[in-house]
Design goal:
The protein folds into 2 domains: 41 residues; 32 residues. It is an all-alpha fold. It is 88% helix and 0% strand. It is rod-shaped.
């Protein structure tokens, strides 16, 4: 009887420890693959985004100006 009272909590404790170790290892692997995926994606470049926005606005302004000029018969 004494051995059963000693053995059951010991087995439960060891299974809990092994579960926690396996869970933490799995979380480390997930973090590693997430980091690998982030590194494989193109980097955020604020200068390139600002340039693309400026070009888009200039193109829009030119199109809008030519549209209104044609509409009003100025061209």
């Amino acid at each position: 009887m004494f051995f059963i009272l000693l053995f059951v909590p010991l087995v439960l404790f060891l299974s809990l420890v092994l579960f926690i170790k396996k869970y933490r290892k799995n979380q480390r692997e997930i973090a590693f693959w997430d980091a690998q995926e982030k590194l494989s994606q193109p980097q955020y470049n604020p200068e390139k985004i600002a340039f693309e926005k400026r070009v888009a606005l200039e193109n829009h302004a030119q199109l809008s100006q030519s549209f209104w000029a044609k509409l009003l018969g100025l061209k």
